[in-house]
Design goal:
single chain, alpha/beta, seven-stranded mixed sheet, four-stranded mixed sheet, binds pyridoxal-5'-phosphate
């Protein structure tokens, strides 16, 4: 179905940060399939994991023990400081699990009509519950009635949360992105998550962090919340966890980890041997190749290089970033930059109408970063003088 307005290109193969189309033209991928291919394309370790596992076992069922699921579960919970994990097939499903968990947790404590605080400009997925949690009318329009039980507040606004808390008795959780991705690479104040943690502790709410875009090394830490030194109650992951195989995860700790029990949630494919083997390989490669440090290093470099190149340019209103999650905001809609970049052999994205979004692979090297800065700077300058 026509759910996507596709660009006029089809890719045939990839290697590292590069993609080749069906005419043999080469592209620098500064989007990674929207924060998915952190290890780049056709990574040898991922390929080997898929081939070996496919030769051994792809799928059994969650009716049985799954050794690879246990291995990845142990690795992820250990690194995240969490107790348990539920595996899904996508980010939206990971958030569905988190929403169900928060509601069940509330009902068990006698709260009849639980509500979850969510932010303006957030994005949490396209299922009915997650689009209802999403703070973008375009995502919701036409799908009413929306799922109830979400209370919306402005992002990065502690006062608004205090007001919501004072006005309502039934809030049980906050579901929020540590940095908003689709919303325009919105980076909150340094102490925002710390303050959210303190409010959740005071009120007995669960702090649920949607790290689907920010997780798996993207921001220069394994998880973005680690920049703040806080510990959430629930974390959702997907995208970069599988480097392209469909896997999502909902991790929880403490009482939140004990809420979902046999019969309360499930998934046929979720956590099958193939995707979990790949997820483990991705985690191990991120660590063995020090890709988190690389993301921090290259991210800092890109941020300062773009600030240097475009910071004083009229029409550029902000340049922000955290690791390899960067946004260049213009004073006008700039979606047409995407096909322009494509024709020069560069893959970028524009979100929130005016924000050029860059999510290059974590394996990005200096020469590729330089090429990205040079090509995009020219494109932006030309666009701003022409439009
Ligand atoms: C923060 C965040 N949450 C959830 C999702 C939904 O993930 P999926 O498309 O895998 O369902 C996305 C996807 O862009 C996302 O960026």
């Amino acid at each position: 179905m026509a759910t996507y307005k596709r660009l006029p290109v089809t890719f045939e193969r990839g290697e590292g940060v590069w993609l080749w189309d069906t005419d043999g033209k080469r592209y620098l991928d500064a989007l990674s399939g929207i924060a998915v291919c952190g290890l780049g394309h056709a990574h040898p370790a991922v390929r080997q994991a898929i081939c070996e596992q496919a030769g051994q076992l792809i799928h059994t069922s969650n009716l049985y023990g799954i050794a690879e699921q246990e291995r990845l579960g142990a690795l992820l919970t250990e690194r995240a400081g969490m107790d348990r994990v539920f595996f899904s097939n996508s980010g939206a499903e990971a958030n569905e699990a988190a929403i169900k968990l928060a509601r069940l947790h509330a009902h068990r404590r006698g709260i009849e009509n639980p509500a979850i605080l969510v932010a303006e400009h957030s994005f949490h997925g396209r299922t009915l519950a997650t689009l209802s949690a999403t703070g973008n009318r375009k995502v919701q329009a036409g799908f009413e009635p929306l799922v109830q039980g979400f209370v919306r507040v402005p992002y990065d606004d502690i006062e608004a949360i205090e007001t919501a808390s004072a006005n309502r008795q039934n809030i049980v959780a906050i579901l929020i992105e540590p940095i908003q991705g689709e919303g325009g690479i919105n980076i909150p104040a340094d102490d925002y998550l710390t303050k959210l943690r303190a409010i959740c502790d005071r009120e007995g709410w669960l702090l649920i962090l949607d790290e689907i875009q920010t997780g798996m090394g993207r921001t220069g830490k394994l998880f973005a919340h680690q920049h703040s030194g806080i510990q959430p109650d629930v974390i959702t992951l997907a995208k970069g966890l599988g480097n392209g195989v469909p896997i999502g995860a909902c991790l929880a700790r403490g009482p939140a980890a004990e809420v979902l029990t046999p019969g309360s949630h499930g998934s046929t494919f979720g956590g099958n041997p193939l995707v979990c083997r790949v997820g483990r390989t991705v985690m191990e490669t991120i660590e063995s190749d020090q890709l988190i440090d690389n993301a921090a290093l290259q991210g800092d470099y890109l941020l300062s290089a773009f600030q240097e190149a475009l910071g004083q340019t009229k029409g550029v209103t902000a340049i922000r970033g955290c690791g390899l999650m960067l946004g260049i905001e213009l004073d006008r809609p700039c979606a047409e930059l995407v096909p322009k970049a494509l024709s020069t052999g560069l893959l970028i994205n524009v979100t929130a109408e005016r924000v050029i979004r860059l999510l290059p692979p974590l394996i990005l090297q200096q020469a590729e970063a330089n090429q990205l800065v040079q090509t995009l700077t020219e494109l932006v300058r030309d666009f701003l003088t022409e439009s």
